[in-house]
Structures are given as structure tokens and as C-alpha cells.
Design brief:
Radius of gyration: 18 Å
Low-confidence stretches: 329-333
Order of helices and strands: HHEHEHHEHEHEHHEEHEHE
Number of helices: 11
Bound molecules: iron/sulfur cluster
Largest sheet: 9 strands, mixed
Helix content: 25-40%
Mean pLDDT: 92
Strand content: 5-15%
Shape: globular
Length: 333
Amino acid sequence: MSRFDLVESGEFESRIKALYSLVSPCQLCPRRCGVDRTAGEVGHCGTAGAVVSAATAHFGEEPEITGARGSGTVFFAGCNLGCIYCQNHEISQGADIALAPSWEPEKIAGVMLDLQARRCSNINLVTPSHVVPWVVDALAIATRRGLVLPVVWNSSGYDSVEVLRLLDGIVDVYLPDLRYSDNEAGHECSSVPDYVERSHEAIIEMARQTGTTNVIGPDNVISRGMIIRLLVLPNDMSGVRESLDFIKETLGAGVRVALMSQYFPSHRAESNLLLSRPVRPTEYYRVVEYAEKLGFENALVQEMEASEFYRPDFRASDEPFVDARHFKAPADV
Ligand code: SF4
């Protein structure tokens, strides 16, 4: 069933109701904090309701996400991880997030429709896992008002399978991170106890919904499918090679993966010796070579200079990325 069928049949409303029922006590994500967000209580993610921090046409995503006119990114404040190196820390972990007034779904729907009016390629929901009910509520409103763009779920991968099942037919493209292959690293770098198991379950469910054979439209924009992002951290903290093993074993090597070199020590990264420097070319290209060896012929790679170009400034909320660069196919590097 598509998003449009779900609206017509009334199923969209049932899904929204089911999602709102998960915020009090909050079990929206695998952390299951149990706080009563309807009463204004705040859990690990830092917001009671949903707050949009920025919305813009973004030109630094994967080529089939960006398209010719930019991806319509909607950045939500707060996050259910707690990465000490987060490049978006101003909006994901800022002290004032909890104080920001919650946005009504009507207002969020207006942002989505505005991005469509600007002819963006899609609606790219960035860090949506902790605000799903409000986002889906907004998508229902926007769909009734004529939103036709593909919906991209751009999450950290730390998603609840129960919640993801309620997104079946609503999300067109899954764009999850797969951050760690070792829970100790997840705990040390992102304060998350069980990242490996939860992200693996989530990615399998995402693939079940959209499949892994991506559908690309005549405008070279993806309309259905998934891309898994693998951020290479210094000193092999993310264990990307083991994550590639997992992807190949469970979903096959035909899955589109994006191998990211753009890490730079941001936020509190300097507090951890292992994370206090950018990734070296030898570390990054070892991962690229391993992906090629496993048969990931579709892998997207970044230039080593990418870390210079992905430094958002969310004080400029209408254009936080001033000089982002595209990914490339391995043969172009
Ligand atoms: S969404 Fe936020 S409050 Fe709810 S369980 Fe996850 S981190 Fe906790």
C-alpha cells in the first residue's frame, strides 16, 4: 500500500494513533526511556515534542538523493544517540533544545510543501526517530494537500522495529547509518548500549519494506529503495569492514552503500584520544578496497577532502551547508 492508499483507506490515521500511543510512556526508540512526553517530560533525545531546526535544499547528499534540484532536508532538533563527535551537535544535543516550543504537525506539513514548491527532489527527514508521530501526522496532512515527493528516512539506524513496521508504505527510501559493529564502541562514542543488535534488526526491516533493488526515476532521483551509510572513524572505531560483512551476509552485496570519509573531530571528540583526528587516507581506502573485494560494486565513495566540506553551521538555519560536495563512484576517485 502506498502513502496515497493509506490516506484514502483511513489506515494512515490508525498508524498515527498507534505512534502517538508510544510516547507516553515513551517507547518510540530502543532506549525505551519511559518518560511521559505528552506531559512535557524529556528523555535521552532531549525534546518532548517535535522541533524543526532547519529546512533547506541540500546538495551534498548521495547523487540519487540530491538530484538536480537538491534534497528537501528537514532537520529535527534532538537525537536518540549521543555521539561525542556529532557534527550537528548544535541542534542534536544543544542545551536549549528542550526549551524550544514544539511544532504542530500542520506547521511541519507546511515546511514539506514549501520544499516541494521549491522543486526539491524529495522530503529528506533527518534524525526523525524520536519524533515519528509528529512527522507521520505532518506527512498525512501534506499528502492530503498534494505532497507527491518521495519520503526519505535519514536516521542513525537506532530505530525500533515496532515503529518501523508502522512506516511501511509511508517511507519510500531508507537512508540509515550503520555506525558500529561493536557495542563497546557504540557505548564509548554514542552512549548507546545495544547499537549493533538494534541497528541490524532495523536495517533488515527497512530492506523488507523497500527492497534493495533501488528504483531510479528519469530525473536520476531514487523513488524507492535503500542506501546504507557507513562513516569511517579513526582507529577503526566504527568497524566498517565488519558492518560490510553483515550487510553482505544478510542482504547481499547488491545493496547500495555510501562509504563516508567526512569525519572530523567535532563537539567533544577531542576528549577521546582515538577520535581526536580526521581519518587517514590509508584507513579510508582500506575500507574502500574491502568493499570492492566483497563485491559491493555500487559503493559510493567520498574524496578525502570531504571532511573540509561537511561542516554545517545551524545558526544559518535556511542554509547550514554552504559548500557540500557530492559522493562519487569508486572509478571516479
Ligand atoms: S524517543 Fe527519546 S524519550 Fe523516547 S525512548 Fe527514545 S530517546 Fe527516550
